[in-house]
Amino acid sequence: MIYSFSGGQTTEEYIAEIEEEREEQDIFMRNSSESPFYKKTDTYNGLKHYPIDIKYKINAKFIEPPAKNIRKLPTNDDSFREYLEYGYAEFTLFDKKQSLLILENVEDEKLFLAFGDETSAETTYGAGRYLDVTHSGGNSITLDFNLAYNPYCAYSDEFSCPLPPRENLLSVPIEAGEKTYN
C-alpha cells in the first residue's frame, strides 16, 4: 500500500527521507567536533532506531497559549534552563488524547519539545527524548516522532540536558525515533 502525504510525497519517498536524515545524524555523531563522541570514535557503535512508521508522523492541532511565559526546566545535573512556552500540540494516538508543550529556545528561537513516554527507561533513554519542530503559523503543526532523538546526556555525563516538563510525559508508547544507546 502506498500513501501520499500532502505535497505529493509517497511512503517510499518519506521513508527514504528519514533514512537519509538518520545516516546524516550518524555521520555527524561519528565525525563532528560538536558530537558527544568527538575524539571517542573508537567507542561509537552507531545509533539505534525503531523502524520508520508513518503513524508516528502526526498532524497535530496547534494551540497558542494566552501568554508566552518563561519556563524553567530542570536538567540532569540539577541546574535549570529557561525556555519560552511557545504553544501546545494536541493529537490522538492509540485512541488517547495527548497534549505536548512546545518550547522555544530563548537564545536561538528554535522550537523543540522534550517528552517521555511508555518506552522511557525500557527501550529508550530513561530521561526522555527530544523532537525539533517547526511552525509556520496557523492552527496545525507536524510532529514526526520518527525523528525523535536522545539528548547528549544520554551518551555522556559531561552534558547538561533539560528534562521533559511533567505535561510532556505521554501515556502511550512512542515506538519511533532513536532508541537507547549502548
Structure explained in plain terms:
It is a single chain. By secondary structure, this protein is of the alpha+beta class. It has a domain at 45-168. 12% of the residues lie in helices and 28% in strands. It is built from 1 helix and 7 strands. Strands 1, 2, 3, 4, 5, 6 and 7 form a 7-stranded antiparallel β-sheet that branches. A hairpin with a 5-residue loop joins strand 2 (70-74) and strand 3 (80-93). The longest helix is centred in the N-terminal third of the chain and has 21 residues, at 11-31. The radius of gyration is 16 Å and the shape is globular. Residues 1-5 have low confidence and may be disordered.
**Helical content, roughly?**
10-25%
> What is the alpha-carbon Rg in Å?
16 Å
In this structure, how is the largest beta sheet organized?
A: 7 strands, antiparallel
Count the helices. How many? 1
Organism: Fulvivirga lutea
Pfam families: DUF1684
Protein name: DUF1684 domain-containing protein
InterPro entries: DUF1684
Short description:
Pfam families: DUF1684. The protein is an alpha+beta fold and about 180 residues long. The chain contains 1 helix and 7 strands.
List the helices and strands and how they pair.
Layout: H1 11-31, E1 57-63, E2 70-74, E3 80-93, E4 96-105, E5 111-115, E6 129-133, E7 140-144
Relevant terms:
182 residues, alpha+beta, 7-stranded antiparallel beta sheet, 7 strands, 28% strand, disordered N terminus
